[in-house]
Amino acid sequence: MDENIFQLTKRTLVGTPIPNSEASHQRLSKKKALATFSSDALSSVAYATEEILMVLMLAGAAALQYSIPISLAIITLLVVVYISYRQTIYAYPSGGGAYIVARENLGEWAGLTAAAALLTDYVLTVAVSVAAGIAALTSAFPSLEYHNVLLCLVSIFALTVMNLRGIKESATIFALPTYAFIIGVFAMLGLGSYELANGTFTHIVPSTLAIQKPLTVFLLLRAFSSGCTAMTGVEAVSNGIPVFQHPESRNAAITLLVMVFILSGMFFGITFLSHYHGIVPTESETVISQLARSVFGTSRMYYFIQFSTMGILILAANTSYADFPRLSSILAQDRFLPRQFASQGDRLVFSNGILILGALSGLLIILFQASTHALIPLYAVGVFLSFTLSQTGMVKHWLIEHKPGWLGRSAINATGALATGVVTLVFTITKFSHGAWIIIIIIPLFIYGFRIIKAHYIDVGKQITLAGVDAKALIHSPVKHAVVLPISGIHRGLFDALEYARTIGVDVRALYVELDAEQVDWVQREWSKWVKGVPLFVLKSPYRSVISPILKYIEDVRDVEHCDIVTVIIPEFVPASWWQNLLHNQTAFLLRAALTFKKNVVVTSIRYHLK
Amino acid sequence: MDENIFQLTKRTLVGTPIPNSEASHQRLSKKKALATFSSDALSSVAYATEEILMVLMLAGAAALQYSIPISLAIITLLVVVYISYRQTIYAYPSGGGAYIVARENLGEWAGLTAAAALLTDYVLTVAVSVAAGIAALTSAFPSLEYHNVLLCLVSIFALTVMNLRGIKESATIFALPTYAFIIGVFAMLGLGSYELANGTFTHIVPSTLAIQKPLTVFLLLRAFSSGCTAMTGVEAVSNGIPVFQHPESRNAAITLLVMVFILSGMFFGITFLSHYHGIVPTESETVISQLARSVFGTSRMYYFIQFSTMGILILAANTSYADFPRLSSILAQDRFLPRQFASQGDRLVFSNGILILGALSGLLIILFQASTHALIPLYAVGVFLSFTLSQTGMVKHWLIEHKPGWLGRSAINATGALATGVVTLVFTITKFSHGAWIIIIIIPLFIYGFRIIKAHYIDVGKQITLAGVDAKALIHSPVKHAVVLPISGIHRGLFDALEYARTIGVDVRALYVELDAEQVDWVQREWSKWVKGVPLFVLKSPYRSVISPILKYIEDVRDVEHCDIVTVIIPEFVPASWWQNLLHNQTAFLLRAALTFKKNVVVTSIRYHLK
Q: What pTM, to 2 d.p., does this model score?
């Protein structure tokens, strides 16, 4: 098979096909799984502290100290969620995403709500992470700030291509920046804490800030909500259990524990040190960048932190590239999404889901001009909604299963459900006017879409089922078949079509529409000279339309002569260059358009290739 | 035949078809012809004086007096052109457009240059006239100025629809505003002149203007060039001779004379009175509007002038709607434009040319934001270029014909050619940097396009001619024909396709691609249960592609089994709503795309309609 330019580009970008027989080898070790599934969660620390401080600073410099108790509250919540999810991993070894857990235990509506929440959040994860990653870069090199939208789009393109290549290669590439980030941040926290403890560094108090809002409970809750973005991505492990090596559940649970540990340490450390270094968020430089500059100066270590932050953030988007297509595929198998999302491409990945994710997140980047702060309020509503549904589902799961220990287990999940449910509410209320309302609108639209797609497939299934059909009623051959060949003149391009017409039928008629009376005699003479055995019918056209008389004739053959099927053979020229198409086949195109949906009429183009 | 929504809209806007037998009735009386063909020329007076004054005012208020000698020079030129064109009308009774005259006498290059010049100018006529017409409206109602682009586009749409209805109806509609404009302007000129002669009105001298440029010969020539836009449209009559009533040439010549008389009178009168009323062009109000306000006050007569000016200007575009499609049709018959421009629509008008003209002029309105002053420098280069070519062609015509009186006749046309040739040069030089350069680029591009289109048609003609072909070599039946039917499952939608496959061939094979080993047994069992006499081939797909194994199989049938033709029957679902197409036929679409250009493979869709 000769490859065309599209196929060649695909092979170059995406790689050669991987056969089915290699499918089982595509499993991940714990270290690679940590890199693949934790980049989203860990990278959240790059912006979570900043989002807390941005809210608190509205109430003046003194309010910034509340970042420390808020971060501790978030870590407590994280631990509750970890314990809750650990149970899910063991209960659903084949992948316990919120959709599956909610649907199995709470029914279709809850499942679809979780699915809608997750899909929107996967798209937002890509947009937020990439935008924050590029912000890390522009903090270090302010001259690039003007190009941030372009840089984000290039990153999304690169991620999309990498993921189309397949997950094993991804894990290898992605391990490096994740571990670099962990090392870099802990080095920074270590040196910073040492200097503080040692007394070589003393607390910097930021200069007074204009107080724009009073320090109310609402403001503290809003800061807490913003900080909860640190927890986004924690659910990734429980979705991806099947790609862990054996024993899958145990390996996944260990990976999740390690991840929660690292995440808590980094998040608290950054918040704590930022406070003592008196860091206040600004438009042009991220909090992490300011902190790294304060600890290391603008040294090599500073650039290491910035590059690894950018690296892990851009790769964090990869969690979504693993989960979005997988969830789409599950939804498509359940017929809530179009069928083409269900099938794996020739590199053992769900290509359609990957492409859609890339397109949607690119769109968000353009709409929100790559601003992390503008995107954050949309983010995390969905995450916490799916946390809540998933854990509520687990409570139901234990109640139904009723095995030993069910009481304790359901209590743990109930605590998780309650905590995340309250946070979902807090998030919705405090962030509503900043953008959360968009999500409140989008999620029901998704659910509506899922349901009409399913309803359609069920309806079609009923229409085309063979159950209860009499086999004899299906075929009524022999049929009365007429072949019609409209011609515009007598030339070489006609004879392939004529030959084909004779091949597929016995009753073949050529049609010629009379537009110019002088031409008719010549055409009839030429026809009888060149063609034997096929009658030529000349159709009058008082209104100079070429299409209408042909349509009328075909309808008469079908309805008056009672032919069961009329095949219309349309001779078409295939020019050597695309623009030459404008010079040919206009009538063929119109005729095809007019005939396509006529009952019992089959349209077939026979192409004559021009040089 | 049941009409669809498109056809219904077309009938409502355009009217019912007119049969060929009514073609000869579509002729115009002199009065209607004057309205149809003179609106372009006459309406030019609405902006020609203003364009002269806009150049002169650069040299200060005192320079404005030169408008009077400049307008007299332009009228002299107009008379020369009239005498010259009068000869063309008698020499070419079947329509003496610049293209025909130049091509017949000066050869293909000159003809194509004239054609390119005319086509660009027809588009510009529509854009300039409509923009100036809307300027007349916004002069009277300044609050509408903000919407001028929209108003222009609506006018172009209305014109396009009217012209698709056909020319006789057009003439009836168009007579009214043309005659209203003539009456209104002469009433204004009459009252203005009477007041001047009577002494009830005395010369107003405009207050001093900033002198931006010295009063050089170049500036005077630039003012003259700008004023020459008054002459655009004069050639319309000679293009349209065949639609005049018998005797065509004589009626056309009389119409042209009347038109030149009226045009000269209005143009000189407006220029003269504008000078005595001390009118200086401004951004927000046209010169005609200022003059009418000065003569009549803001009375009913003022609004009558403004509305009739708007009316004739918008209808002036109609000259192009008559000529552009007609010239396109002639060019298409000569194979310099795609064939579809050659044929008349079902209302006896050249629909394709009308639609293209509407689209292009709408585009110009958007690009130049409906500014007459921005469009004017592009205008008239083409008109004068085609004047020159046409009259040079006439000189050659008389020289070749060599009938009695040839010397005098060729001297007249030579004078016309020389005069308009000089003006073309002056125009190009003085307006070059203001936009004329665009036309200098576009005209050669048009000529290039004409020539490659013709070269393509000639090449195709050679490829498909039957001259010298042996009749026996054209048909080699019986052919070896295989029919292939790819299936994705066993359901009701399949049986129409199966029946059709059996109708058109004896060697029918069904293909099933194995993606899931568990499905294969079930499909084979169902197949043998429901279908008799057609073998089912199961194709392996190690890379999970549905398309590749089918392509490979078809190529083998063709190349290894040596079938002459392989027909691939693709069963497709036709859903009830358009959006449901997204849920079906993805594979059918890809398969069709992969097969369409394969040699000796014919692709036929059999549609199964869903409810």
A: 0.70
